[in-house]
Amino acid sequence: MTEFDPSRRRILKATAVAAGGTVTAVSHVPQADAAPTKQAPQQASPASVSILLRVNGTDHEMMIDPRMTLLDTLRERLHLTGSKKGCDQGQCGACTVIVDGRRITSCLTLAVMQQGHDITTIEGLGTPANLHPMQAAFIKHDGYQCGFCTPGQICSAVAMLDEVKAGIPSHVTDDLTQRPGMTVVEFRERMSGNICRCGAYSNIQDAIAEVAGVKA
Ligand code: FES
Ligand code: FES
């Protein structure tokens, strides 16, 4: 029976020998039998770019990955988390913001493309102490349940009423030579890109109708 030597030098020596043995064994495997190795294609990360975004009346200068969407930039970089990421594919409307008075789905546009434009998010429409009329109407008519779609619904509704006032027709406008009417039929068609999983549609409709000054 050999005497146990717990010295550090001896343990290191034993470890080194074991490792060397392993390496030797592997190196004896014929190359033809070795499994082919696949290398994942390397994706070059594009350099960050400097951008200037005007959001809710404030200029924000920052360095971003040019592939960042406006939605991610608003939420992750500016911490304006009112705009929600539902589908990230332009299908649900939860990310709707207003750019130069027109509503867009911020998940489908790059932040670099929105330089020089006026971006308004739900945070810029009103404050708890000074609500936008559409925000107040949503509260009054209980136009939400979980609230996830609500910022997008409100931004969309505000810009939508401006579209009707400006005379822009929709698929349900009967006479394209006339200005579209302020009707619930027009509102429903124009808000169809904003999905509410809670099904608060009838109350949302009442809120919009009240702001538009028409009977729901
Ligand atoms: Fe943009 Fe759904 S998250 S449309
Ligand atoms: Fe819940 Fe619309 S209120 S999704």
Layout of strands and helices, then pairs:
Layout: H1 8-27, E1 49-55, E2 58-64, H2 70-77, E3 96-99, E4 102-105, E5 118-120, H3 122-125, H4 133-140, H5 150-165, H6 184-190, H7 201-212
Parallel strand pairs: 1-5
Antiparallel strand pairs: 1-2, 3-4, 3-5
Helix pairs in contact: 4-7
The structure holds FE2/S2 (inorganic) cluster (2 copies).
The site of one FE2/S2 (inorganic) cluster has 12 residues, from loops.
Index terms:
216 residues; disordered N terminus; 7 helices; Ubiquitin-like (UB roll); binds FE2/S2 (inorganic) cluster; 12% strand; alpha+beta
Name of the top-level CATH class of the largest domain = Mainly Alpha
Number of helices: 7
Structural class: alpha+beta
Quickly give the CATH architecture of the largest domain. Answer: Orthogonal Bundle
Poorly predicted sequence stretches spanning 5 or more consecutive residues: 1-6, 8-34
- Coarse morphology: globular
- Strand % is 5-15%
Rounded to the nearest angstrom, the radius of gyration is 29 Å
Biggest β-sheet: count, sense, barrel? 5 strands, mixed
SSE arrangement, N to C = HEEHEEEHHHHH
Helix content: 25-40%
Distance between the termini: 96 Å
Name every ligand kind in the structure: FE2/S2 (inorganic) cluster
Number of domains: 2
**What is the spatial order of strands in the main beta sheet?**
2-1-5-3-4
Mean pLDDT comes to 86
- Total strands: 5
Considering the protein shown, what is the CATH homologous superfamily of the largest domain?
[2Fe-2S]-binding domain
